[in-house]
Amino acid sequence: MTSWTFVSRDPEETRAIARELGRAIGADGAVLALVGPLGAGKTVFVKGLAEGLGLDPRSVSSPTFVIAQQYPLPEGPEVLHHVDLYRLDDEDELVNIGFEDMLAPGGVLAVEWADRFPGVLGRDHVRIDFEGPTASEAEGTESVGERATGPGRRAAVTAVGTFSERVAADWFDRVEARADGGAETGGFERLAALLILLVAGMGMLVGAGERLGPVLSTGGAPCAVLVERAADDHGTTHAVCAGAASLDARPTGVARLVNGDRIDVNRAPGPWLEALPGVGPARAAAIIAARSESPFRSLRELERVPGIGPVTRERLSAFVEVVGEEEVRDGRG
């Protein structure tokens, strides 16, 4: 079980935090239990979730009186189901709205007032317990679920089940990165990632009597080509900087990134994957588990990994590849 807490100061921050959850959900979807009193911010949270899944948040409204709303998604999971159990008196009423079908993989199910019938969510779900509004805030509540968390209001996240733990861990990483002022992958972030990979990947590029500096530059000039001097089953373990080199001497493994190449997501060891921007231990483990069941045939298939959606997949495309993907697309794989 994975647990953590976030604090929201206003509705905009509630939506921003929920947006990161939407980005953390992969093609298999997720089940989300939203718990809290009237005015706690559950519907505002779903608006942010929808935005992270690629929807216009203005299209999302409280389902209190209609019980359930469905929103087709443009990429990743197929649909967002938004359900409100506030007006239901009996668990049997869930049959009328096709609740069991909403639990199927491939959709995102967000259930407000989920604590009314906790047994219907299954063994694998993420629960978010929202702190209620203060008395003064509650007086200003205009409609059920439409008021977001107030200044400094807390929400506790609890993930039950291996699948949901991966999604929650990925979500936590994204929220932490946002709090630290993280941005989308750019030139600086790519350079930082390369340095991390070079240092942590396998202790590569550090040979007898040589240090990292001379590998990246020669005589004060930028390194034109990295040339492999030694390698093992995982790729380059020792390389030097040269002004020119044959293709046969180009580095292999994670060192390919230095020359602008990518690493094979079907073969890259866990430490290399963990060091890539936006991956971390939880996503790396999920990638390895998914490829062990069935190797990736294209980068788009990364979205079947829990915690990887379209945004993350697009970010990773700058660093990873699927060897033979062109052949697969052309029908030759």
Structurally, the number of domains stands at 2
Strands in their spatial order, largest beta sheet? 1-7-6-2-5-4-3
First-last Cα distance: 40 Å
> Proportion of β residues?
15-25%
Low-confidence stretches: 139-150, 182-221, 326-333
Order of helices and strands: EHEHEEHEEHEHHHEEEEEHHHEH
Write down the CATH topology of the largest domain. Rossmann fold
- The CATH superfamily of the largest domain appears as P-loop containing nucleotide triphosphate hydrolases
Query: Could you tell me the mean pLDDT?
Result: 76
Short synopsis of the structure:
By secondary structure, the protein is of the alpha/beta class. It has helices at about 10-25, 40-50, 100, 135-140, 160-180, 185-200, 210-215, 270-275, 280-295, 310-315, 325-330; strands at about 1-10, 30-35, 70, 80-85, 105-110, 125-130, 155-160, 215-220, 220, 225-230, 235-240, 265, 320. A 7-stranded mixed beta sheet has the order 1-7-6-2-5-4-3, covered by helices on one side. A two-stranded antiparallel ribbon has the order 8-9.
